[in-house]
Amino acid sequence: MDFDNTFDQQYPDLVRYCHRLTGDRDVAEDVAQESLLRLFDRGIEGSEHGVRAWLFKTATHLVRDRYRVRQNRKRLLEVNPVVPSATEAPDTSLERNEDRNRVREALDTLAPRDREMLLMRYSGFSYREIADVIGVSATSVGTLLSRAEKRFERAMTEAGEAA
Amino acid sequence: MSHSTEGAIVALRDGALIDADDRLHVEGCGVCSEALEEATRRAEWIQRTLSEGARAVDTDAAKRAVRERLDGIRAAERPRRRRFSLAQAAALVLFGAVGASALPNSPVRTWVGERMTPSPDVPAAVTTASDAAEPIETSVDVAVGPAGLVISLRGVPESSRVEVAWTNETTARITAADGSSFSIAEGRVESVVTGGPVRLVLPSTAGPLRLDVNGRRLLSRNGDELELPEGSIAETADGLVLQVPQY
């Protein structure tokens, strides 16, 4: 397996997924790197899709282990400071940061299972793969996903009203 | 037929396999078609929402970091391979000696026989069944210091289990195979372990804790936040089970 190609293909999506999952960019990068390290260290081989599924599954388990006792979501928001990008106009940058925070807050209100399910689905995973990671039957993913989507939509609306 | 469930509608939207009757019903039912459209709109909105504001990712820096760590792991493997070769050589000599002692009139046999024949004055050691069955372990208690507690274990065989149980006490207990040695300073204990498994009883609240095994971090706890960089292999009623990673 080619180190550079695999890294280029998987790392950005993995970081974004973990960032959405944890709310902490540093933790997201750490977990994504650890997942890729294990992939290469253990010589995991497979199709691009198979490797991607393995990486996301590993990252999900690493995040769960890391925050197994109790996640302090408020602290996660505090350690994820909003840093304006130098290449963006201040107004645009501020708007984007507000959007990010609203998405972050809405995701934080979801149960871990709903959050993982939602983020995996919108990272392009099949129902079977989601079921494998979440630990439910593939036939119940549709129902659970539908509820998670509605909860997220409601939470985003509430976050928007509160802003 | 009654209307399709929300799960079936979402599964149809996402192209997951659903019952053929469900598909036919949704196509012919105004209520379900509308639900499908709404679910589709919601999916498009969520996709847009989650994609917006995604920050740029510095892949090159991460690549360098992972490559360096992989190089470190590979470098650490090399001395271990040499040690393994020495162990193989020792085993070869031992098996050779045993084989030679089996030959009649072998000088090795004569040499071993002279030294292994029990003296008539000294009774032979007796091993009872209970001695053989009872695993012998050694343990040490260490209090959490003002700055917490660092436990560093060395020599633990790869793939050994490290069983962790949480306690409300402020003292940790480390139990390992007999012959393991411990050196204790305030807030720190170092141990050379002679074999697995290792059992730890760790304070669940007192001080920050850190557990390093063979130079790799397996556990750290600071307040409520628990980190298991290598993951865990099982959870127990009062703790969890870690496994010493293979290198």
Topology:
The complex is a heterodimer of chains A (163) and B (247).
Chain A: H1 3-22, H2 25-41, H3 48-66, H4 73-78, H5 90-109, H6 112-121, H7 127-134, H8 141-162
Chain B: H1 6-13, H2 20-28, H3 30-51, H4 59-102, H5 107-116, H6 129-133, E1 137-143, E2 149-154, E3 161-167, E4 171-177, E5 181-185, E6 188-192, E7 198-203, E8 209-213, E9 216-222, E10 225-227, E11 234-236, E12 239-243
Parallel strand pairs in B: 2-6, 2-8, 3-7
Antiparallel strand pairs in B: 1-4, 3-12, 4-7, 5-6, 8-9, 9-10, 11-12
Helix pairs in contact in B: 1-3, 2-3, 4-5
Please tag this protein with its features.
heterodimer, A: 163 residues, mainly alpha, Arc Repressor Mutant, subunit A, 8 helices, 0% strand, B: 247 residues, alpha+beta, 3 domains, six-stranded mixed sheet
Structure report:
The complex is a heterodimer of chains A (163) and B (247). Chain A is mostly helical and 163 residues long. Chain A has two domains: 3-66, no CATH class; 89-162, Orthogonal Bundle (Arc Repressor Mutant, subunit A), CATH 1.10.10.10. Chain A has eight helices and no strands. In chain A, helix 1 packs antiparallel against helix 2, helix 2 crosses helix 3 (48-66) and helix 6 crosses helix 8 (141-162). The termini of chain A are far apart. Residues 69-77 and 79-90 of chain A have low confidence and may be disordered. With 247 residues, chain B is an alpha+beta fold. In chain B, a hairpin with a 2-residue loop joins strand 11 (234-236) and strand 12 (239-243). In chain B, helix 1 (6-13) crosses helix 3. Chain B is elongated and about 100 Å long. The two termini of chain B are 59 Å apart. Chains A and B meet through helix 1, helix 2, helix 3, helix 5 and helix 6 of A and helix 1, helix 3, helix 4 and strand 10 of B.
**Major sheet details of chain A:** none
- String of helices and strands of chain B: HHHHHHEEEEEEEEEEEE
Structural class of chain B: alpha+beta
In the CATH scheme, what's the topology name of the largest domain in chain A?
Arc Repressor Mutant, subunit A
Q: Count every helix of chain A, treating DSSP H or I runs of 4 or more residues as helices.
A: 8
Q: Termini separation of chain A (Å)? A: 47 Å
Q: Would you tell me the overall average pLDDT of chain B?
A: 78
Report strand % of chain A: under 5%
Portion in beta strands of chain B: 25-35%
CATH-assigned homologous superfamily of the largest domain in chain A: Winged helix-like DNA-binding domain superfamily/Winged helix DNA-binding domain
What is the CATH class designation of the largest domain in chain A?
Mainly Alpha
The tally of beta strands of chain B, per DSSP, is 12
Radius of gyration of chain B (Å): 31 Å
Question: Shape of chain A, please?
Answer: globular
What is the helix/strand order of chain A? HHHHHHHH
Helix content of chain A: over 70%
Shape of chain B: elongated
Q: What is the share of helical residues of chain B?
A: 25-40%
